[in-house]
């Protein structure tokens, strides 16, 4: 600064004191002038105050003048000295700057050349952007849905990121919009850009993800870990599917890096923090034992000891809608196909409903490969092995399940026309699994179609004689059943009719082959009261056939010409297990048929206590959720426990549910 800061500061303080004393003196002068003549005491006091104030004012005035003179004296030489120093500094600075810049002159010329190129590139990019902008403006944005992608091998480690709504865990269950990302095998979020990341799932290898259709808000999905669950909502169905696939792909990618044992230990350590360490360890051991039990049971099915697509031993992942077991690498490829093609689930980490477990035991790798790889040998194609590259496996899986190039063509009336005199007809055998024969090996091509009055394509085992029995996989009702469906003209054979007949005959392999050939899972038979395959599965009494159709997208609320949905038919027939299954899948129990009856009134008339209990519990739970609003719990604990118990009973002990009125059910068909 031109003048020392301390001198200026002292001058300003002196000025403030001088101004204050001057004001005090003016006040004393006013008081002295106002002192009354006849009050000597006040006159004396005012005079004394004025004397003291005037004396103080004169002293401060001298100090103030002194400070002014000191500053004026310093200005004569200190300012000039500072200016001279500044000029020397400027000279030195620019002299050194010139020397430095002279040395980097070649670099500046190179930089100028690059700058010219950047200007040219920028102009080209601007023209391209203007062209794209013009094209985009011509597109229809009535439904704006941005392109979403994820990359498990992203260089920065972020598989996917974007905004999601998160349901809070507080009592109000509020929804907040947060920025989520999948990185380093973790699901994290933050409120603002500079906020610290909050970890939702510490290790994605210990969690599963599933869509949620039983809440009011749309596009929701849930990430479930051993210690907690997190409900999230995307902005569209496309975004929801992208997030689900991204989480599943991250799980698959993480499992490729380390063996399962590491994560079983992590599972033990990440047990629910609300319980004691002993309880957590016990729960983890029980969960691990349960997972191993499911794994051993499903792997015992013929063909399930190795991956369905590459032959890798000890597969621990399943495609639940296809009924096959997969290795970790093939499961990741299946996830990339989308849930409409393959729904992947872990045999050791995910929870398994009893009906889904029985479905996996009904099909298996051998059975499904006889469908999807029927023409491989004839075409001379070589199946990839466990040591094949991921690209080879991915190409094989897409050709096998998406393009479906290895399927055996369905027989037609023209295919077997030569040297035949008898009518060309077909029917579907009943698929019955006896004790000790669960998952029996696939025998021949005739398991799929029983060609009555047509020479079989290859030898097949003799058909068992019709008998009155309770099927292990039925809903718990004893019925007299015929061995095969009604005869049909071979010329009318098509995938829709095939799955329709197979659903009634409980023949899951035929149903799977019909779907492989493009059968519509909700195909309507206009010659049979507009019934669907799901309704036929109900009529056939097969809980597992219903589960298979639902896993493949069957509409649980599609009704026939009489206004009866699958839930109506299951209630009429007293199929308690199917009623429980449909209610869990969101069946509408308030719909009435042409007689004005809903499932509850039908069950009450039939005096079926189990079904009445299930329907009333479901209705009460629905009313409770409506009363709590969109932030309520997804289900009452008692309700969930009872439905879980009925599911286990229907799958494992169906005879306990055989309480319906046989006369009533037949009279109402």
Please give a structural write-up.
The chain is built from 22 helices and 14 strands. The chain has 669 residues and is of the alpha+beta class. The chain has a 7-stranded antiparallel beta sheet, covered by helices on one side. Helix 1 runs antiparallel to helix 2 (40-75), helix 6 packs antiparallel against helix 7 and helix 18 packs across helix 21 (637-652). It has 5 domains: 5-89; 158-269, Roll (PH-domain like); 284-403, Arf GTPase activating protein (Annexin V, domain 1), CATH 1.10.220; 409-461 and 470-520, no CATH class; 556-669, Alpha Horseshoe (Serine Threonine Protein Phosphatase 5, Tetratricopeptide repeat), CATH 1.25.40.20. The radius of gyration is 42 Å and the shape is elongated. The chain has helices at residues 5-34, 40-75, 78-103, 105-137, 237-257, 260-269, 277-299, 328-337, 354-362, 365-372, 376-379, 390-403, 495-504, 508-516, 533-540, 543-551, 566-573, 576-584, 599-606, 609-628, 637-652, 662-667, and strands spanning 158-167, 175-183, 186-190, 198-201, 208-212, 220-224, 229-233, 317-319, 324-326, 344-346, 425-426, 468-469, 479-480, 488-489. One of its GO terms (molecular function) is zinc ion binding. This is Arf-GAP with coiled-coil, ANK repeat and PH domain-containing protein. Residues 272-281 have a biased composition (Polar residues). One of its GO terms (cellular component) is endosome membrane. GTPase-activating protein for the ADP ribosylation factor family.
């Amino acid at each position: 600064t031109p003048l020392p800061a301390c001198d200026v500061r002292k001058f300003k303080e002196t000025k403030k004191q001088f101004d204050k004393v001057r004001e005090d003196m003016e006040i004393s002068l006013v008081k002295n002038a106002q002192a009354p003549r006849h009050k000597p005491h006040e006159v004396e006091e005012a005079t004394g105050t004025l004397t003291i104030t005037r004396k103080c004012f004169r002293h401060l005035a001298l100090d103030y003048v002194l400070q002014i003179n000191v500053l004026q004296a310093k200005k004569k030489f200190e300012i000039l000295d500072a200016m001279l120093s500044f000029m020397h500094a400027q000279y030195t600075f620019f002299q050194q700057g010139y020397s430095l810049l002279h040395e980097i002159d070649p670099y500046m010329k190179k930089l100028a050349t690059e700058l010219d190129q950047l200007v040219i590139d920028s102009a080209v990019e601007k023209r391209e952007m203007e062209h794209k902008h013009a094209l985009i403006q011509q597109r229809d944005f009535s439904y704006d849905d941005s392109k979403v992608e994820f990359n498990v091998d992203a260089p920065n480690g972020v598989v996917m990121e974007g905004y999601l709504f998160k349901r809070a865990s507080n009592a109000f269950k509020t929804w907040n919009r947060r920025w989520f990302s999948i990185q380093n095998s973790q699901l994290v979020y933050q409120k603002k850009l500079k906020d610290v990341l909050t970890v939702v799932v510490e290790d994605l290898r210990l969690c599963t993800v599933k869509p949620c259709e039983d809440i009011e808000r749309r596009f929701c999905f849930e990430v479930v870990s051993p210690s907690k669950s997190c409900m999230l909502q995307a902005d569209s169905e496309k975004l929801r599917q992208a997030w689900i696939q991204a989480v599943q792909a991250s799980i698959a990618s993480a499992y490729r890096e380390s063996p399962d044992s590491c994560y079983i230990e992590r599972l033990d350590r990440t047990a629910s923090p609300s319980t004691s360490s002993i309880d957590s360890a016990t729960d983890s051991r029980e969960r691990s034992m349960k997972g191993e039990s499911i794994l051993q049971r499903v792997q015992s099915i013929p063909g399930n000891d190795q991956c369905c697509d590459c032959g890798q031993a000890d597969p621990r992942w399943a495609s639940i809608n296809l009924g096959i077991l997969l290795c970790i690498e093939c499961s990741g490829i299946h996830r990339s196909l989308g849930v409409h093609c393959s729904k992947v689930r872990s045999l050791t980490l995910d929870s398994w409903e009893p009906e889904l477990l029985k479905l996996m035991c009904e099909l298996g790798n051998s059975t499904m490969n006889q469908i999807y790889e029927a023409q491989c040998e004839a075409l001379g194609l070589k199946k990839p092995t466990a040591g094949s590259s991921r690209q080879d496996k991915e190409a094989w899986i897409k050709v096998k399940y998406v393009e479906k190039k290895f399927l055996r063509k369905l027989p037609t009336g023209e295919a077997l026309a030569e040297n035949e005199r008898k009518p060309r007809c077909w029917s579907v055998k009943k698929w019955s699994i006896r004790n000790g024969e669960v998952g029996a090996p696939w025998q021949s091509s005739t398991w799929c179609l029983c060609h009555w009055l047509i020479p079989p394509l290859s030898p097949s085992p003799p058909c068992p004689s019709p008998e009155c029995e309770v099927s292990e996989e039925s809903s718990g009702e004893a019925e007299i059943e015929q061995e095969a469906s009604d005869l049909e003209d071979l010329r009318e054979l098509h995938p829709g009719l095939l799955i329709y007949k197979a659903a009634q005959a409980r023949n899951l392999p035929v149903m799977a082959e019909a779907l492989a050939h493009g059968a519509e899972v909700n195909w309507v038979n206009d010659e049979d009261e507009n019934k669907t395959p799901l309704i036929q599965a109900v009529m056939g009494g097969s809980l597992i056939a219903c589960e298979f159709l639902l896993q493949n997208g069957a509409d649980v609320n599609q009704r026939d010409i009489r206004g009866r949905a699958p839930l109506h038919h299951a209630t009429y027939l007293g199929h308690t297990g199917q009623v429980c299954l449909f209610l869990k899948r969101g069946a509408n129990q308030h719909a009435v048929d042409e007689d004005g009856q809903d499932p509850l009134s039908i069950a009450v008339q039939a005096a079926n206590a189990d079904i009445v209990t299930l329907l009333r519990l479901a209705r009460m739970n629905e009313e409770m959720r409506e009363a709590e609003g969109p932030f309520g719990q997804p289900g009452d604990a008692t309700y969930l426990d009872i439905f879980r118990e009925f599911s286990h009973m229907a799958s494992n002990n169906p005879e306990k549910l055989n309480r319906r009125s046989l006369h009533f059910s037949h009279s109402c068909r």
